[in-house]
């Protein structure tokens, strides 16, 4: 839904997702009954805006038990914010968060931070890819939906 348009020149990159990507206009309900429960889908820059995640975990029919954020965070912002934002979305929404991430240079002048990870509803990083630019990596974690139910039961939070 949100596009990353930034100009960090003269010392950093200019990235304008709006030049190549059409902004989303609707937030679809989570996909129900996946192996990780109800799965809410967002992308990269959406992680900076908590309302979308809150809406997905508050969905009347299929409240998300997991959120995804496939991303290509810039190295500078990734180092400062990537893990913090993933953990924040997991904690405030009491769900698992999957942050898949491009790493290294994927076209001239564009480098991404990487560090794909999975965060549990308590905000603990339960899996993280080793940082590498030579080969694709996969991280895997056991997803226990009882943990989602337990955290939500023991620390009730109002849903929007």
Describe this protein's structure.
The chain has 160 residues and is an alpha+beta fold. The chain is 23% helix and 24% strand. It is built from 3 helices and 10 strands. It has helices spanning 50-57, 75-93, 145-154; strands spanning 5-7, 14-16, 31-34, 37-41, 66-68, 96-99, 103-107, 110-113, 117-119, 125-128. A 6-stranded mixed sheet has the order 3-4-5-6-9-10, with helices on one face. Strands 1-2 form a two-stranded antiparallel sheet. The model has no long low-confidence stretch (mean pLDDT 86).
Low-confidence parts: none
How many strand units? 10
The number of helical elements comes to 3
C-alpha Rg, in Å? 16 Å
Side by side, the strands of the main sheet go 3-4-5-6-9-10
Helicity, in percent?
10-25%
In N-to-C order, the SSE pattern is EEEEHEHEEEEEH
Shape: globular
Percent of residues in beta strands? 15-25%
Largest sheet: 6 strands, mixed
Q: How many angstroms does the end-to-end distance come to?
A: 19 Å
Overall mean confidence score, pLDDT: 86
Query: Which class do the helix and strand fractions yield?
Result: alpha+beta
Present the secondary structure layout.
Layout (H helix, E strand, L loop, with lengths): L4 E3 L6 E3 L14 E4 L2 E5 L8 H8 L8 E3 L6 H19 L2 E4 L3 E5 L2 E4 L3 E3 L5 E4 L16 H10 L6
């Amino acid at each position: 839904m949100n596009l990353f348009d930034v100009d960090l020149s003269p010392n950093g990159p200019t990235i304008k997702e709006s030049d190549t990507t059409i902004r989303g206009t609707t937030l679809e309900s989570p996909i129900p009954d996946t192996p990780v429960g109800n799965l809410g889908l967002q992308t990269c820059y959406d992680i900076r805006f908590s309302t979308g995640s809150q809406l997905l975990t508050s969905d009347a029919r299929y409240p998300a038990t997991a959120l995804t954020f496939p991303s290509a965070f810039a190295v500078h912002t990734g180092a400062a914010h990537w893990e913090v934002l993933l953990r924040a979305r997991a904690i405030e929404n009491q769900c698992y968060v999957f942050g898949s991430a491009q790493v290294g240079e994927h076209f001239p002048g564009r480098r991404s931070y990487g560090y794909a990870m999975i965060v549990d509803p308590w905000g603990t990083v339960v899996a993280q890819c080793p940082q590498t630019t030579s080969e694709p990596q996969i991280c895997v974690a056991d997803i226990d939906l009882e943990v989602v139910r337990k955290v939500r039961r023991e620390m009730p939070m109002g849903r929007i």
